[in-house]
Amino acid sequence: MDRIIKINTELSNFLWGYPMIVVLLFGGIYLIIKSDFWVFKNFSYIFKNTFGRLFKDSKSDKNSISPFQAVSTALAGTIGAGNIVGVATAIEFGGAGAIFWMWIAALICMTTKMVEVSMAVATRENDYDGKLIGGPMYYISKGAGSKFLAKLFSFFAFIAIIGTGALVQSNSISESVNSITGLPLYITGIIILVFMFLVIVGGIKRIGAFAAKIVPFMSIFYILGCILILILQIDKLLPAFKEIFISAFTKSSAIGGFTGGGILVSIRWGLARGIFSNEAGLGTAPMAHATSHTDHPIRQGMWGAVEVFVSSMIICTMTALVIITSGLWKNPELQGAALTAHSFSKVLPLGKYIVAVALILFAFTTAVSWCYYGQRCVKYLTGSSKLSEIFKYAYIGFCYLGSIGGLKFAWGVADTANALMVIPNVIALIIMSNTYRKILKDFDKYKDGSLRGDYKWTYDNKWRKYFEN
């Protein structure tokens, strides 16, 4: 077993190193060019027509969820430990300059995720019960013309969902609760089991409704905690930004073996953690967006771009500033979650509880969202709706197992599977880039809002022609 763990760790470290950065970074740049820099040219329009229309576009029906519920579900799966622990790791190994490169990754990945979400909506279809379904497996098969890559994506996604979604997230919750209250892991596991059942038994409609309520709360709770700490040491904020920009282009004195490592190491950690935190290119979030009650793929795709901005540019940046202003990031004895918790507690005595509560909320919402992603993978791999329904009960069982056991191996396998999901997904996005351009052009006549598309449009009754011509 030790040999297997070592091999998997080496493979995971390799995949999430420079190879994955190259795939996602250059894939993203290619999509930016092919889309004629649409996200950057329409930056204000995107936010005006997402958050600006939050309560105007809140419709849903029995077969879909509202655009905000869709983005909340996707954000529930996106905002997780990476926004707290991942940022600390980036600073630990890449220095403060890694945050600058995290911002660069986010700006590039906004387009990648917009393309993902748009293609998921354009290739969605109606399930046996009339509900809208879609995701990478559908656009890889229909848009890129490869059922093999679609199955490959679904297989790796299934493994990652069990590991990252069920085992790892529930373990994070039980460990956090134990650190605060001393409650035994198995008791927390039972509580997780009950709450998971109550949410996911209702399917995507209940998951969407739950996410729409909890995601804004948990995000605001964490952001306000960060803002309070930064206000209490406002004099250190400007030097922190100065440290970020200077360190991005010079050698740093961070811990974790980075000292003297140079700019490339800072770039590697900033880009890798940035990409990991916003899930762009991973392909999970489009499964939630495909169920949205939206009239056009691009309109929902804009929410994908916003997700990246919220996750990386706001939440990750807040975490980074708290850590850098604390000065504790140069302490070799503090790593990962401990570095973040101590950075909060240095200024605010109850700061560690903010981190712990945020981790619990982030982890639970991630676990809930990824259960739905798992159902979609099972349905695509087996063609059985019954097995898809059975899976969610098995998923709850995996959550309990995760809450009571050490999961170093599960985390490593999930990391590897996550990386292997990216490859077929990004290949498909590049293949479909011309189709995406056509759908962008089609959106021009709906852009000013005077004309609306049809909420019932799917691949078969509207978008097929854009993929075939």
Automatic annotation (TrEMBL):
The chain crosses the membrane at residues 12-33, 84-109, 148-168, 180-202, 214-232, 244-267, 308-329, 353-373, 393-411, 417-436. One of its GO terms (cellular component) is plasma membrane. Keywords: Cell membrane, Membrane, Symport, Transmembrane, Transmembrane helix, Transport. One of its GO terms (molecular function) is amino acid:sodium symporter activity. It is found in: Cell membrane. Its main location: membrane. It holds the Pfam family Na_Ala_symp. The keyword Coiled coil does not apply. Belongs to the alanine or glycine:cation symporter (AGCS) (TC 2.A.25) family. It is a multi-pass membrane protein. The keyword Cell membrane applies. This is Sodium:alanine symporter family protein. It comes from Anaerococcus porci.
